[in-house]
Amino acid sequence: MRIHLTSVFVDDQETALRFYTDVLGFVKKHDVPLGEHRWLTVVSPENPDGTELLLEPSGHPAVQPYKTALVEDGIPAAAFAVDDVQAEYDRLSALGVRFTQEPLEMGPVTTAVLDDTCGNLIQIVHSK
Questions:
Q1: Cβ(86)–Cβ(39) under 8 Å?
Q2: How many whole angstroms separate alpha carbon 102 and alpha carbon 114?
Q3: What element of type H or E holds 93?
Q4: Between vectors from CA 76 to CA 71 and to CA 78, what angle results, nearest 5°?
Q5: 53, 51, 45, 50: which is closest to 9 by C-alpha?
Q6: What are the C-alpha distances in Å from 26 to residues 47, 55, 100?
Q7: For the chain, how long is the longest CA-to-CA vector?
Q8: What are phi and psi of 110, to 5 degrees?
């Protein structure tokens, strides 16, 4: 068994697609119209057949209270692996990305947390 698909709830799919591709560096995998929304997934360019991230609309009534509570408590909705958190922090900061947690070393793990502009906090992480 392996993870095939996971999702983040986003306030606006087009804004999310631009952020997750143009800023974070993912590539679009699927973009299927579904009425007013889309089945919209992105993948790592390093593993285009790997786990997909669904940029899922936040339309369900339970989603906004859930997302708000996570953000208010500083809890990331997802975590993405990077080779070097400090380098990614520097690159993304230069692009105007807002971080809620600067790089923090915790033993063998370094993390940072960013705002994805779509209502979520996202953690980037690398292990030594």
A1: no
A2: 9
A3: helix 85-94
A4: 135
A5: 53
A6: 10, 12, 21
A7: 47
A8: -120, 135
Each residue of 96-122: pLDDT tens digit?
999 999 999 999 999 999 999 999 999
Distances (CA, A) of 125 to 15, 58, 104: 24, 25, 10
Residue 117, by phi and psi: left (phi above 0), alpha (psi -120 to 50) or beta? left
What are the tens digits of pLDDT across the range 53-98? Answer: 999 999 999 999 999 999 999 999 999 999 999 999 999 999 999 9
The pairing of beta strand 78-81 with beta strand 121-127? parallel
* Tokens, residue 84: 């070097």
